[in-house]
Design a protein that fits this description.
With 412 residues, the protein is an alpha+beta fold. The protein folds into 2 domains: 128 residues, Jelly Rolls (Sandwich); 250 residues, Rhodopsin 7-helix transmembrane proteins (Rhopdopsin 7-helix transmembrane proteins), CATH 1.20.1070. Helices cover 55% and strands 16% of the residues. The protein contains 13 helices and 8 strands. It has a 4-stranded antiparallel β-sheet, with no helix packed on it. It has a 4-stranded antiparallel β-sheet with strand order 2-7-4-5. This is GPR180/TMEM145 transmembrane domain-containing protein.
Length: 412
Amino acid sequence: MIMTSLFYLIVFSCAVFSKSISTIVSISKQNRWAYLSKFNLGPEIGYWQLRAKLVNPIASDNIALEVMTHIDYEWDSINQLVFCQQYDKEEVREKTLSLLPNGDWTDFTHGELARNVFPHTWFFTVSSCNSTLQGKYKVKVELTIQTESGSHISYESYFLTYLYPASSILFAIAFIQCFINLQNYLQQTEKIEKKIFLLCLTIGIELLGIISETTHLWLYSYNGIGMEILSLFSQFCEFLSQLLFITMLILIATGWGIKHDEFPDSETFLPIGMLMLFIHIVIIGYSKAHNEDPGKISIYDGMPGTILFIFRLSFWIFFLYCAANLYQQVKSKTRTFLISFMIFGSIYFISVPLFVVMSWQIPKYHRWFFIISSTLCTHFMGYLVIMCQFSSKGSYYKISNLSSNVLPGKDL
């Protein structure tokens, strides 16, 4: 099941090349226009070039194809028009090229995106309003967009090229410290502590995802394509690391290390975890396949976001249920820890939905950066809190089997 999902991710990755776009659109008498892509441009000039060809050659005269760019404050009204009847009344920027009947590529047509004081989103469409169309034609289009600085990165992703490298350093430090703690515990008890190992694995997987996304963005900024499979792998690593971390929080809430030392039955948790991972992989693939939709900003938009929110809130409710159930079975010292642990877990579980809701009050071109930066900060702080709880100064350490397994004078 997981391998099948990964296969579909690779297929999706081959269809989402941008900001050098290669796509096929359909033009017919009933539907004379088609949406291509969008690009967020900062307060600078943008440049684009486009060429097209008929997928199936025809024995008729050339077909005129109009290429148009629309700025965001025009888009909502243009998108609702009977396009060919009313588009000429709008302030659109148009370039025309002639599709060759034999199916050869046209020459590149070039255009410019005007400089504005504030960032704006530009939408690209093609139409054939001035040609006599006899049937349905499939047109392959290649579009390349870049800023005047030569970068293919759109404005909402520009700051991510700095955020991800900085995050990789912080997460690397956290991973190294966690690994040192694991080694120290191994030396003191002559066994690998599963909880510390699981935390190290979680941090390491997210670090690997951050490095993958950093590499993709750097390549993307230079060639407009990058390696989309690295971006897909990065999101897969993020979801896997969060699934592991959430599982660890829930296991602790059930009394792992407090009432029982053994790892819970894998026959119960493993199928559920595999199912959740499969669903997340499908969501990633679906979101990537619709990455160029006009209203798409992040993976939390639309149906994928709704599903992710439901999962997150369901995990939160189950976490609170387990912690409350454990609260009734333990002594006062452990109850004090559980109260603070429930508060910490609740903040962690509702943080991402809260950040997404908060982002609705932010301009669209800043939303994705806000969500990513807030989420990474939450993950990092969550790892630090649990790492401290696993140290000799942590409340969890003092009430769990971590302290009982270590000889006196050899605390972490």
